[in-house]
Amino acid sequence: MNITSATKLLAVIGDPVRHSLSPVMHNGWIADHELDAVYTALSLKSDDAASVIRAMKALGFTGVNVTVPHKEAAARAADRSESEVANTLRWEEDGTLSAFNTDGAGFVDALTETAPDWRGRVSRVLIIGAGGAGLGVGKALSAYADTVHFTNRTLARAEAAAAAVSNGRVLRWEDLERGFGAADLIVQTTTLGMAGQPSHDWPVQLCRSTAIVADIVYKPLETDFLYAARARGLVAMDGLGMLIHQGARAFELWFGVKPDTKRARERLLEALGG
Ligand code: ATR
């Protein structure tokens, strides 16, 4: 790659971002398409991220991804946003800034890749966790499901998430077993099971035999939750799927081409060390 003063600049902005896999993924696609662009990671510690993001226009950025904790600021910084929480920004030729959220649609793309017939199988969704990721996935699934239940250690956050989704409901953390028994699709969106974090003994044995389970954790790639689900013969989706497909949608917004998601998975597996 020959980086010059004409090379287009892209980045992921967040805090922390040092371990982000997005540069590996996007630079791989940039090379696949022989584009004159480079994608890096910028750590941003600021109480006024929106001002910093607006100022990036002066530096000539083409686009950025935004991650925790700046997704709300990104939506506010833009001249137009499809959501109050944005993960993708694109500077237009007229100098204005457009904001998008590809997380939810990326999750749905990944689910379709893993279980192509899921739409016909899923009416009851259970989302474990009610943080930004849980709410984003729940919102995206609400259009396809009869009900989207949120369960969360802190009840108030589950209530807020359920209220933000038209067919949202609250499942008490104490009633997790009942929720597992009733759901057609269970999506684990908390940090539980992530390397270095506590794990949890999910009642996978109570799942319906037709249930689909997904975990958004990708370190480790096979969490205890996915391991138990696969051991029971359930369809299980790992956390790289959402990462790759939200990235693919962002890449298409910037460059107008659909990148190769299979190659991205190979590169990310290598970056994860196997
Ligand atoms: P994000 O926006 O990335 O989803 P977050 O807002 O920090 O991140 O949310 C993390 C989720 O993991 C929350 O649902 C959190 O539950 P609380 O709202 O009760 O904090 C959940 N979580 C983190 N550690 C947990 C633990 N030890 N037990 C249960 N839930 C946990």
Describe this structure in words.
Helices cover 38% and strands 20% of the residues. The chain has two domains: 8-101 and 242-271, Rossmann fold (3-Layer(aba) Sandwich), CATH 3.40.50; 104-237, Rossmann fold. It starts with 7 loop residues before the first strand and ends with a helix. Strand 1 (8-14), helix 1 (22-32) and strand 2 form a beta-alpha-beta unit. The relative contact order is 0.13. It has helices at residues 22-32, 49-55, 71-77, 103-114, 118-121, 132-142, 155-163, 176-182, 224-231, 240-255, 261-271; strands spanning 8-14, 37-43, 61-66, 80-81, 88-91, 97-100, 124-128, 147-151, 168-170, 185-188, 212-215, 235-237. With 274 residues, the chain is of the alpha/beta class. Strands 2-1-3-5-6-4 form a six-stranded mixed beta sheet, sandwiched between helices. A six-stranded parallel beta sheet has the order 9-8-7-10-11-12, with helices on both faces. The protein is built from eleven helices and twelve strands. 2'-monophosphoadenosine-5'-diphosphate binds at residues 68, 129-134, 152-154, 157, 189-192, 198.
Topology (SSEs and partners):
Blueprint: E1 8-14, H1 22-32, E2 37-43, H2 49-55, E3 61-66, H3 71-77, E4 80-81, E5 88-91, E6 97-100, H4 103-114, H5 118-121, E7 124-128, H6 132-142, E8 147-151, H7 155-163, E9 168-170, H8 176-182, E10 185-188, E11 212-215, H9 224-231, E12 235-237, H10 240-255, H11 261-271
Parallel strand pairs: 1-2, 1-3, 4-6, 7-8, 7-10, 8-9, 10-11, 11-12
Antiparallel strand pairs: 3-5, 5-6
Helix pairs in contact: 1-10, 1-11, 2-3, 4-6, 4-10, 10-11
The structure holds 2'-monophosphoadenosine-5'-diphosphate.
2'-monophosphoadenosine-5'-diphosphate (ATR) is lined by residues 68, 129-134, 152-154, 157, 189-192, 198.
